């Protein structure tokens, strides 16, 4: 595969709104030891990209400053010590950054094969969401079959995957969303019920079901004490984002009296080894279901790479259902 010296990318020209995303020409990165260079076909658009754009989610010191945390394409080059992948292999990968570009590098063991029969646009929508859901819902949250699981933002990229995986593994799934259309989408994906948060108090709704054994929340702010109220005895709250803020005042007594657990994580700062372990678990436990078509990403919309600003506007409007991707090649 012939690799050019320069490529088109989208950079964060200054911190701010979607308009600060600007197309630029930059050098193509090189694969170092243990890394692969990917010729990107599509890249996923995620909330952390918007946080980085706003100056609130700095990339690791050794990562590309370009946004973009997942992509699908073909291996263009392999670094020293890489044996699993060869030039031309179709892969989807978790990236430390740099996905808004024609080429990006990542650790070879953070890549996975494109599931059989899956298109590149859908493959680009896998890694950030599946890595996040797997580690937070099933590892930190320890969701088990038969338990009651509530996911906020059920129609988001994270939410649509969380619903499908939880249902697949035998949980009773509930969701919140901001419209009847979004709630219907959640039910179609496998939620037992979905609550329009503009009309229904999810605390009362979950208490009527016996309380949630696990809640996955990305809203934060005033939702945090309400989440505790919605939990069953020995319930767990997993926090993965704070769209409405991380500072909140609440009475923690019920954490002790009802034996509640509050935890959470972010994906990007986790170690190379931790991300590789998640990739191996996903390939063994989840990838066969993707190849079989049992589950899969819900696609909302597609934009050209140079239209990244429009993609961010779409994401931040919260009108989308599922994943937004950028077409690169």
From TrEMBL:
Record key words, sorted: Acyltransferase, NADP, Oxidoreductase, Transferase
Sequence ranges assigned to domain Enoyl reductase (ER) in this UniProt record: 16-326
Entry EC number(s): 2.3.1.41
Pfam families: ADH_N (PF08240), ADH_zinc_N (PF00107)
Highest rank taxon of the organism: Bacteria
InterPro entries: ADH-like_C (IPR013149), ADH-like_N (IPR013154), ER (IPR020843), GroES-like_sf (IPR011032), NAD(P)-bd_dom_sf (IPR036291), Quinone_OxRdtase_PIG3 (IPR014189)
Gene Ontology molecular function: any one: 3-oxoacyl-[acyl-carrier-protein] synthase activity
Listed Gene3D superfamilies: Medium-chain alcohol dehydrogenases, catalytic domain, NAD(P)-binding Rossmann-like Domain
NCBIfam families: quinone_pig3
Name of protein: Phthiocerol synthesis polyketide synthase type I PpsC
């Amino acid at each position: 595969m012939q690799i050019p010296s320069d490529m088109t990318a989208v950079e964060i020209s200054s911190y701010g709104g979607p308009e600060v995303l600007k197309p630029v020409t930059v050098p193509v990165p090189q694969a170092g030891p243990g890394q692969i260079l990917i010729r990107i076909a599509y890249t996923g658009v995620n909330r952390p990209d918007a946080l980085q754009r706003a100056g609130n989610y700095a990339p690791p010191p050794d990562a590309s400053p370009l946004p973009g945390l997942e992509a699908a394409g073909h291996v263009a080059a392999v670094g020293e010590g890489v044996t699993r992948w060869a030039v031309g292999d179709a892969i989807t990968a978790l990236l430390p950054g740099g996905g808004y570009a024609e080429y990006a590098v990542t650790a070879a063991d953070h890549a996975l094969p494109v599931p059989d029969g899956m298109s590149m646009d859908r493959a680009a929508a896998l890694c950030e969401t599946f890595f996040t859901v797997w580690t937070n819902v099933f590892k930190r949250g320890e969701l088990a079959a038969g338990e009651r699981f509530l996911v906020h933002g059920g129609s988001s990229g994270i939410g649509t995957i969380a619903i499908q995986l939880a249902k697949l593994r035998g949980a009773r799934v509930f969701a919140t969303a901001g419209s009847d259309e979004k709630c219907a989408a959640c039910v179609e994906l496998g939620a037992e019920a979905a609550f329009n948060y503009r009309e229904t108090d999810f605390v009362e709704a979950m208490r009527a079901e016996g309380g949630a054994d696990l809640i996955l929340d990305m809203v934060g702010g005033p939702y945090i004490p309400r989440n505790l109220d919605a939990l069953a005895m020995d319930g767990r709250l997993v926090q993965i984002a704070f769209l409405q803020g991380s500072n909140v005042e609440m009475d923690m007594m019920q954490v002790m009296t009802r034996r509640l657990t509050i935890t959470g994580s972010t994906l990007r700062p986790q170690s190379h080894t931790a991300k590789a372990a998640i990739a191996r678990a996903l390939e063994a436990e989840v990838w066969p279901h993707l190849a079989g078509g049992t589950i899969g990403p819900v696609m909302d919309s597609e934009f050209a790479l140079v239209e990244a600003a429009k993609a961010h506007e779409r994401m931040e409007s919260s009108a989308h259902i599922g994943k937004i991707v950028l077409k690169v090649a």
